[in-house]
Specification:
Blueprint lengths: L1 H55 L16 H4 L18 H26 L2
Length: 122
């Protein structure tokens, strides 16, 4: 009976984690699209500003916004099919192998983010 309770708790926990991650990803995607649209608007306005600067003979620099590498998660890491972990796990996964796999993935992501941060700060 104890094993069934643990299994049910793990299933509920995994489902909750999956919902949280899906919600976060949805919100992230919405903000990402909004930011891309705003950057496109700024670039369009910059064209007009450059035209005006040319007309008055000024050579002031115009800031060009762009997404940084830390804002494009798909550019931070490359994964192979065998590295992909499913958040919505099947009941056959053991919690100890999951924990070690998640920890290994965490270390890899942390190392890559540190590397990108160092590259961006140069």
């Amino acid at each position: 009976m104890h094993g069934l309770k643990v299994f049910c708790f793990n299933s509920l926990l995994q489902e909750a984690i999956c919902r949280i991650k899906v919600g976060f990803n949805r919100e992230f995607d919405e903000v990402f699209v909004k930011k891309e649209l705003e950057i496109a608007k700024i670039k369009e306005r910059n064209k007009r500003i450059r035209t005006i600067l040319d007309d008055i003979g000024a050579s002031d620099p115009v800031y060009e916004p762009e997404m940084g590498s830390t804002e494009k998660p798909e550019m931070l890491l490359t994964t192979t099919d065998d590295e992909v972990l499913s958040v919505c796990l099947t009941s056959s996964s053991s919690s100890s192998s999951l924990s070690s796999s998640l920890f290994a993935l965490f270390i890899r992501v942390n190392n890559r983010l540190t590397q990108v941060h160092l590259e961006d700060s140069r």
